[in-house]
Structure formats: C-alpha cells, structure tokens
Amino acid sequence: MAVEPVLALGRVVKQFGGRTALSGLDLTLRAGEVYALLGPNGAGKTTTINLILGFLKADAGEVRVCRIDAGTDPIAARARTAYIPEQVALYPGQSGLENLRYFATLAGLAIDRAEAETHLAAAGLAPEAWSRPASGYSKGMRQKVGIAIALARKTRLLLLDEPTSGLDPSAAAAFSGTVRAAAERGTAVLMATHDLYRVREMADRVGVLAGGRVAEEIDPRRYAHTDLERLYIARLSGAVT
Amino acid sequence: MSQSRFLPLLRTELRLILRERLTWAILAALQVALCLGGHTGAQRVAGERAAIAQASDDAARSLRDAKEAAARYAVPRAMTVNYWQDPTHAFGYMHYFLAAYAVKPPTPLAVLSAGQSEIQPAVMKTSFGFSTVFEDTAYELGSSAALRLGPFDLAFVLIYLVPLAVIAIAGTRLAAEQDAGILRLIAAQPVHPRIVAGAKFGAAALILVAAVIGGTALALALAGWRDLPPGWATTLALLAAALCAYVVLWVAACALAASLWRGAVASLTILVLTWACVTVVLPALLGLAVDKLAPPPSRIAAIDASRQVQDAFYRGDEAAKVTAAWLTARLPGTTDRPDLRETPQINRLARDAFYETTLAPYRAGMQARAEGAAAWSARLALLSPATTLALTLDTAAGTDAARHAAFLASASEYRRSLRAFFEPRILAQELRPAAVCAGCPARLDFDAYDAVPRFPTVIAADAARWQAALSALTLWGVALALAGLAFRRFAIWSV
C-alpha cells in the first residue's frame, strides 16, 4: 500500500500580471523526506512556499497538504505545516520563551514554561538566552527560536525558506542536525535554498527549479559537493550533460 | 470567531500591550491631562458658583436694606426722602432698590465642559429703562458645532487628546509587525487574521476604555465631584457609554488603517490626518454651515436701532404723544388727568414700553437666531464624532448654546414679569397716593417686597439625558460600522 504524500503539488501554475512564476510545477513529498528546492532568485521558490501556506492561490493545478487543499482551506493546511522564514523576526521586547509561547498560542497550543524550555533546548538555544529580550538575539538565535516554534507545533510538514543563510558554520551545522532529527521523527521537510553544501548534508532529494517547474530531480548523495554545484549551474544554463 | 483561540490570544495581547513602556507613558500623560482638565473645570464651576452666590447675597442685601429703610421711614420724622431713596414708592423700589438676577446654575456635571460658558454669562442682572435688544450686552452667542480650541478642560482632553492616545497605542498594531517581518511568522500559524486582529485591537480597546473611563472618574473625584442628584445617574451612564463608543470608534479606525496593509508610517499618517479632519476641519466646516443656515443678524444694526428709538422718543412732542397713548391704553378713564402724563414715573414707564415694542423685532430676531443656530448645531454635530461628543459633554455640563438661548429667553420673560408686577402698583400709587402715616418720610405704601417674582432657576436633566442617549447610539453605530469594515477587510493576510 502506497504511503500518502504529506505534500503534493500537481501542475501548479501561478502568474503575476503577465509574468509566469510557476508553469506546471509538480512536486511530491512523503513523511520523513527532506526535499531541497534549488533555484536562482525569482525562480519561484518563495511563490511555492506562499502557495503551500495559502498566502497565494494557484491559477491552475492543486496544492495539497495531507490531502487538504491549501487554496480553499489554508488554515487547515497551515495547521499541518510549520514554517521558518529566512529572517525569523520576533517581538523584540519579549524573551525567546515568551515569543515561543505567543506563537504557540496563535497556533492554538497551550504550552507551559517547562515544555517551552524543552523546545528551546531542542532547538539549541542556550538556556541563559531563554529569558532575555529577543532584541539582543543574533540571527542564529532568532532562527533557533523559529525552530523551537516549529518543533512545538509538531506538524507533519516543515517549510524552510533559506534556512541557513546568514548562519555561522557551527549554527548551520546544528541546524542541519535539527532538521535531520525532525525528518527521522517522520516530518516531511521542504526547504528552499541556495546552500548546496547543506543541501548535500540534509536533503534526500533536490529539485532544480527553472522555467517555473522542477527541471530535474537529483539524488544529492550520488554527487560530491563540487559536482553538485557544477550540475546545478549546468541545469540552470540549460547545458544538460 | 473561535472563542477557544480568541480568549487566550486576547489575554496574551493584553499582557503584551501592558508590558510596553510606551503604553504606560501614554496612559500616564493622558491621566495627567484628564486631571488638569478636571481641575480647570472645577475652577470654572467654582467661579460660576461664587458669582451666583454673590448675586444671591446682593439680592438679599438689597431686600434687607429696602425693608429696613421702609421701617425707618414708616414713623413720623422731620425729614424728606426722594422717590429714588424711598422703598415704599413702587417705582423707586423697582428702579433703585431691587436687585433681581437671572441665573443659570451649573449642572451636576458642569465640571466636564466649559462649552460656551467663557463667552456667555451664568448670571445677568435684570435692569429697566434701557433701550437695548440684548439681555447680555457683552457676550456673543457661539455655535456649539464650531469646536474651538478652548480652555484645557475635560472635554478638550476627551475630544482631542484621547484619540491621539488611542492612535499612539493602537495605531501601529499589526502594521508594526508587518514592517518588522513578524507578520509573516504570525500568518504562517493556523489562525484566521480576524482572530489575530480582533485580539490585538480588542486588547487595545479594553485597556484604553478602562484608562479613559477610570481616568475621567479619577479626574472628577480629584476635582471634588461627589454627589449626583436623582435623575442624573442615567445621564452619567449614557455619557460613559458614549465615551466608550468614542474610544472604540478610534480603535476601530486604527484597525481599519491596519487592514490596508500599508505599514506603520502609512497607518499613522492616515490616522493623524483622519484625526485632524474629524476634530478640526469638519467641525470648522460645520460651524460655517451653521452660520449659513442660521445667519446671525447684525448686532451693530440692533445697537443702531436702540439709539434711533431713543432719538425718536425725545424728538419734538413724540414723548408726550407716546405717554398719552400708553396711559390711555392702560387707564382709559384718566383723560381728565393730564397731570399724570407729566409725572416722571409714568413718562419712564411709557418710554420703556415704547423701547420694548419698537425693538421687539430685533429682540425676536436675535432669539430666533440663537435657537436656530442651536438647533442646526445639534443636527450637524452628528456628522462628526468629535462634535457629537462635544455637544453631549456641553449639554451634560449645561454649557451648550441651546441652554443659553433658553436662558436668555427666560431672562427676557423674567424682566417682563417684573414689569407686569410693578406697573399696576406704580399706576395705582400715582392715581391714589397714600402715605403710610401722617408725617412719615415714607412717601407711599408699597410693601410687597416678598411678593416680587423670583427668577425660576432650571437645571433640566432631560436635555442632557436625551443628548447623551443620542450620542451613545450614534457613536456606537459609527464604531460598529468601522469595526465591521475592518472585519471584512481582514479576510486574508497580506504578506
């Protein structure tokens, strides 16, 4: 019996005015899988994430999260989706702990302080930072609170938008570990990124987004980092070998 | 709206707002402003009460002096008093002893608003023998729709500063999150934007309503306001409802501005411009409209008419003719008493009646204008929330134009009633003079001092109650309409 996909995008078309952002995007993601969506700026990565979160409606095709149409029932789709944006912005006057509890409340969860601390610890935020105002947090620390919010949600799908951009190597490595751990717990992970090094480290599959669709899917473990980069550039320039 | 999601969010938003230093700074400044406003109002009311007490003392003293003089002159004594020194002479008493005042006492809620009180007197001495159209010679009626930057009273704080406090606290809710990038993370949660907006602006509304109502109550208490006479509790409750609506209305305006998704700077710009339009521009236009709809007659023309009527009376033998006609109309059987026409008292009474009749159209025009302007002001005030609340506070404080117009009409009526009281007594004394006793200095026998009509002071609670009810209904209607518009616009996130 085939496992039901957590995320299924079928022939998705999205246009903005006269510009086509997505022209028949197909993408399927199963539980425990980490899928990296590669593509240059403007390739449609963020549009894809916005469609999954229900911020945009597809002009054609369908976007389903756990069989729920994200276009018609975005709130139900978001209930099964956690999202970490490229720049995690928090309430600066509130601590990491308070931010986490606030976003959990938004998601309809009532988590106590102990549970919130567990998630912050799992996300790798140092305990001395938990109660400090987020105004003093580095990008990496804010990212960790974003991860903690996602972990607290315990969703089946995790969306990451340029998750390692701006992180120092150790923070990026820790982040990779956290994502892999989530995948091992059965979470499906879709990340839009440029970071080929982390892609190779984290992703099970890589989709190269070009011309508004997945031009090719690659198994990153079959390639060394430099080969992966060469292959990615070649796909974008159309010089397929 | 999911209640299970909304209430925890509302609690969280309340905590968030109350933890902001800016919130406390704004609320503290607002509280200080309310207390200062209350203090200004209390001082004004104390001044009015002192003026009224002084008028009352003056009336009592003049009555006491008259009675003492009447008793002194009622025993035989070798002295002569003139009629203007003699309280037993009805004419002399009316013109030279009587101190009669028309009084507009402050209402129980007078502390709230100075309204028109700074340009319109609460006490006017009733006088006779002047050819004037005006009961109050030094004051000009104003339009209550034309909100002016008047004294720093509670009404000023509530009408002008409370909306600014609301904008400062609620004006950047959601818009600031949008600018900071937090909105994207909020929108990614499984929650409808209406629930988030409802919690954010609902929390702001709860805090601001509590601050404004509590602050006003504290300001009133510090201003020495304690008791509320029967019939005013409902008015006070309706006023509180109108005030709540005014705050909620501005919070709803903030929500509507946020729903445009233009960011904090644009939201604040839109809201401040709206504030300027609602509290300054629109009331000024309404004031101009009132002047167009109920144009004020020329006071200069009325003053000129007053002078002309004096000239006319004293031109040629006009005075004699007027006096004869007046006397014949009142005492038809006195044609054989030409001496009566020569008496200065009869001559003065006839002259005053001539002035009154000739200037009646000007007086009626002024009164009609005052009433018309007040009526148009009441209607047009509903076009702006600021003028709606201003008129309500003025009416509750008893400092509105309509009450003053009624007060002027009452003062005129009072003067006429005093004349009607004295005229027959003066005529009777002129026809059949009778001394109190032989050899007394007292010339005549007038002693009805305690029967002289008193000015009927009125503090009508009805007008204030109805105006407060109308205001509460109107303001809640506008507030709910704005909230409804914002609710519709928050159908989707804009990220």
TrEMBL record, chain A:
Belongs to the ABC transporter superfamily. Keywords: ATP-binding, Nucleotide-binding, Transport. GO terms for molecular function: ATP binding. This is ABC-2 type transport system ATP-binding protein. It comes from the Bacteria. Residues 7-236 form the ABC transporter domain. Gene3D superfamilies: P-loop containing nucleotide triphosphate hydrolases. The keyword Transport applies. InterPro entries: AAA+_ATPase (IPR003593), ABC_transporter-like_ATP-bd (IPR003439), ABC_transporter-like_CS (IPR017871), ABC_Transporter_VariousFunc (IPR051782), P-loop_NTPase (IPR027417).
TrEMBL record, chain B:
It comes from the Bacteria. The chain crosses the membrane at residues 154-176, 197-225, 237-261, 268-290, 466-487. Keywords: Membrane, Transmembrane, Transmembrane helix. InterPro entries: DUF3526. Pfam families: DUF3526. PANTHER family: ABC TRANSPORTER PERMEASE, ABC TRANSPORTER PERMEASE PROTEIN NOSY-RELATED. This is ABC-2 type transport system permease protein.
